[in-house]
Amino acid sequence: MTVATLSGALGAGNLAEILSFLAATAKTGRLTVELAPELGLTLKLRGGRVAGVGGPLAPRLGDALMRLAVSKDRIAALWARWSAGEGPESLARAFPELEAAQEQRVRIALSYALASSGRFHFREEAPASPWGVHLGEALLEALRGLDERATPLRPLEVYGLPRNLGVGLEGLRQLLPQDWQVLATLDGERTAAQIGAFLVLPWDELAGRLERLLGLGLAELCPEAPSGGWSTQLKEGDPAPNFTLLALDGTPFSLGSLVGQKVLLAFFRHGGCPWCNLRVHELIQNYPQLKARGVEVVGVFGSPLETLRTRVGRQNPPFPILADPDDAVHTLYGVGLSLWGLLDPRALPHWIRGLSLGIPHGSVDGELLRMPAEFLLEPGLRVARAYYGKNPADHLPLEEVMAPARGAEHRVVSPPRAAWL
């Protein structure tokens, strides 16, 4: 007998087509979806129904039962009968909650697989258990959740606690009970998909909670190589570290609140710097065009809030201006110092133009040798362009900012192998 196999690469949307085909043709066999080394999903199919689900993307059966409020005693009784060799049909009759738990496991696993890319392999095999979840219905339910929440976040990315919480600690007061569950799992090692499987949450629900934590300054994307530490300067494709600083009006502002938007993140010297005020003036003049192209602007100054209000604040910028008086976030983004840059004669004409704005220079209450830096961020808060100025007047050309942002490949982190449950 010839055994039919089917395999190939997964792109945007075609896993749904493959699953629909397997359900419509009532296939029996094993479907393996590989999204990253040792991170994937296996479905055992019988007649287009899911008779078994396993892999790191699938929540454990015990966790799914507990999520459905099944008592620990009843779960223990189920395991005892399973260990004694009782078959799935008999267990399904004795424990009807098994069906709902399996449906939940399949839907959650599919929600992460459908939002990712990788490879698949299907092989016809002997029939598995006759009891199972209807694949077509689980697929529709997973797709419905994904359609209701379009998000720039990616299931295979890794999230952790910010290295610089700052005033982001204020966000703890705004957390909902379910937010704490997610916050407690952000270890900087597990992918969002692994966290979702652990918490028995589909991708659409987990993404919503992650977006909330990002907006409150309580979570951030982790770097490409967690074990190797953070690089001095960011580069294209790196996640933009989240932070929370005080804005001109005294309210906390978190970079994570802009997830889903393109952002021009600009780092400046001090509030009275003529070069910096000239750049702010230029950004104010071009702000309508930037907004029309979907770009938000955020400026970070190495001065206390009081200085910003009496100096750069006189320009009444229509975008957030943030105070970073200890330069913690400047350092986080690798914004450097340069004596030669400060003395660069090419910057002198811009200094004179900046003075003409009438903004009082005052004493230097920021880092004197600090150079500017600007970052164009994608909607997922990854760096599309990192520009470190060589002198105080050296900034990212606005023509590049207004051009379509370039994509960046997301990373894949290998999780520990999960057992088939």
Account of the 3D structure:
This protein is α+β, with helices and mostly antiparallel strands and 421 residues long. It is built from 15 helices and 15 strands. The chain has a seven-stranded mixed sheet, covered by helices on one side. Helix 1 runs antiparallel to helix 6 (135-148). Residues 225-231 and 405-421 have low confidence and may be disordered.
Please tally the helical runs, counting DSSP H or I stretches of 4 or more residues.
15
Give the overall shape, derived from the CA principal axes.
Answer: elongated
List the uncertain runs.
225-231, 405-421
Proportion of strand residues: 15-25%
**Gyration radius, rounded:** 26 Å
Q: Residue-averaged pLDDT, rounded?
A: 85
Helical/strand content category: alpha+beta
Question: What is the tally of beta strands?
Answer: 15
Q: Helix coverage percent of residues?
A: 25-40%
Q: H/E order of the elements? A: EHEEEHHHHEEHEHHHEEEEHEHEHHHEEH
Largest sheet: 7 strands, mixed
Distance between the termini: 30 Å
Strand order within the widest beta sheet: 10-9-13-12-11-14-15
Key structural traits:
421 residues; alpha+beta; 6-stranded antiparallel sheet; elongated; disordered C terminus
In short:
This protein is an alpha+beta fold. It has 15 helices and 15 strands. The longest helix is centred in the C-terminal third of the chain and has 19 residues, at 274-292.
